[in-house]
Amino acid sequence: MTPDLLLPFDDTAPTFAARPVWCGRGSAVIGRASLGAQAWLGDDSVIRADGHEVVVGDRFWLGARSTLHIAAEMYPCIVGDRVTVGRDAVVHACTVGDESVIEDACVVLDGSLIEDGVLLEAGSTVFPRSTLPSGFVCAGSPARPLRRLAPGELAERAERLREAAASEPAVGPGDDFAPDPAVFVARTARLHGRVALAPGASVFFSCILDAGVGPIVIGSTVNVQDNCAIHTRGDGLVIEHDTTLGHNVTAGDGRIGPNCLIGMGARLGPGTVVEADVLVAAGSATDPGQVLDSGWLWGGRPARALSRLDAERRAMMARTVAGYAAYGRAYRKLQAGATEGRWTGEG
């Protein structure tokens, strides 16, 4: 089997110890990624090593619509042997030990360490630079140890995640879409209906933008990162200029103002209004119709105002926009010569 998309970055292509056991539809492996033997990659899974390395051990299992990524020039993503990651999870710029299990919709953030043999329960968020100790069930936001694992529990939970993949519904193809030459739309992204992208916007790998009812309007220099899912059911969604949607963000009808950052794995309820200059913490969720006031860091489930944005956070948000604008320009060129359906790994 071969991933749907194999793409080099900075002249470095992915390598594999052996052909993966399974590569689902829309799976993508990019850049300085090294995968061990017997990898299983679910539908629309993304492994992106564009600015640091991703190193994955043997018998890795990655669920549908999950994302592995790095922090450019800061943190790699290192995953041990016999690790299972569920669906719609983000494993970002961190280290995951052997035989750990990360369940559905988890977010593991930069510089964190999950030691060997950890069970991270569904929906948890591992905060940056934190450590989860070996042999524990961990959960929450921030994730903390709850109790010691029972004998056989880790293997049972891993098997349960893998069995659930058999019932995962297939996602249909997107509409034919010819964006402006100044826009990047990843080959594995799926766009439906009335989607408008301003110059400089970028839609990354395995995103779903479903504007079958209301329109989706994306402003200039907006980046919609891997595995974001936007589904409109009413008036549509407007995302204003210089805004970031991190990996695996879910959104519907509403409005997101300029100069915002919606953190990885966040879920914006229908009708959410995010005013200008807002940072939404990773793994947060909003209630339907919630309004997030300008100038604040919001976090929690449901999200609440945590602190005023300071110069350091605003600078980070601006760097993210600039960095992803550069990624978009690079990927527009790289994707034109991408390999699709041809084995380029080792073994």
UniProtKB/TrEMBL annotation:
Stored Pfam families: Hexapep_2
Top-level division of the source organism's lineage: Bacteria
Membrane-spanning ranges: none
SUPFAM superfamilies per UniProt: Trimeric LpxA-like enzymes
PANTHER family, per database record: DYNACTIN SUBUNIT P25, GAMMA CARBONIC ANHYDRASE-LIKE 1, MITOCHONDRIAL-RELATED
Protein name from the UniProt record: Carbonic anhydrase
Species per Swiss-Prot/TrEMBL record: Methylobacterium aquaticum
